[in-house]
Design brief:
about 425 residues; mainly beta; Immunoglobulin-like; 2 domains; ten-stranded mixed sheet; binds CU-O-CU linkage; binds copper (II) ion
Amino acid sequence: MNRREFLMASTAAVLLPTPGRAAAPLRLKAEPVNARILPEPKNLTPMLGFNGSTPGPEIRVPQRERVSVFFENGSERRSAIHWHGIHLDNAMDGVPNLTQAAVEPDETFHYAFDVPYAGTYWYHAHHRSWEQVARGLYGPLIVEEPDPPAVDRDITVVLDDWRLERNGSLHESFGNRHDFSHGGRMGNVARALFSRDTVRRGDRIRLRLINAATARIFAVSIDGGNGKVVAHDGMPLAEPVPPDDLLLAPAQRTDVILDVTGPVSFTLRTRQSSYGLGTIAVSGSNPAPIDTPIRPLPPAQVPVPDPNGAARLTLVMQGGAMGGHHGGSDFWAFNDRSGMPEAPWYRFSRGETARITLRNDTAFPHGIHLHGHHFHEIGDHGALGHYRDTTLVDPRQSRDILCVFDNPGKWLLHCHTLAHQASGMKTWVEVA
Ligand code: C2O
Ligand code: CU
């Protein structure tokens, strides 16, 4: 099978499972599921999921409330859940061997944490994540604003791809050296999964895009409405911009508010072609469309960086195919070191600001994720750019970020191409 080619374009909209409310303790059980990836009458795909489905149920929780989740491991492998993008208590971060022991099969772990910032987040397995996330162990996590923008519908859009055999089962090529040393595990079926499949013409809708793929960078166009991008990685944009040329690295999220003019279709743009990911159909029309301008979301009360007092650090991404020599022991490295060092890459005192140059000396793009924090991307003339938890750095490029390390604990810093993380591109920092 030629992995560069897609098996088929999407047909009917595929629905996400219904939300679970997080006010009461939730139970998330990891277990085998059969997923409808290929359209009927093709076979279902044996995968892993939570509570009977992949993606797992959407968890919705009001900002500043406490999330309480009993994670029950009904799979055959150890696992743990990471709450991607949440500034949470370090002990709840879900990183085996750094913040907790992996949860054995048939065991339960209780996650309980506060959610200080509203926005679009997600949860995913963080043990052998390059395999467990690709097998389906993830779901959306939405933190609701106390004063949300007026919209008619709030719709979660999960972007993912899967590498399937013709018979519908997952290709058992997990962890192969080619994926690890190149761009990671790319699928041959890609799709947008929606939390609802119809809207009305004239509706104002909020779309919460989540790239849950382990490797694919989604370049997405959205047709069927006029609107604005209002947030990246959960955090509001001061100035909303038109949703042209959306680009989501693995784990990145983007919120778009759109006034619907027709079927809302999502297209993946690749170098060679474009590929339909799915369409939200139009049924009826809204008798009283919202006609106020699309405003910025309420700003998040985030710590203010101190650019003058900032420590200056450089993290060099190295390795991979065509990447040349480096000092690490695996395919990939940060600063000549592959995998987790005994001691943290850097120790920050709590509240310290650091300016970090992320320099990509490889032939591949990398979406670099810092746990427990967001950081500012720094623009060309030192301007503070987007405030994100995952930043995409193109081959042979570099990007500076400015971060206030205000959350105490041991935090992972890694590439979210999960094959790269697994073969060297990760480290950790400590905030004390
Ligand atoms: Cu979304 Cu360390 O991961
Ligand atoms: Cu990478």
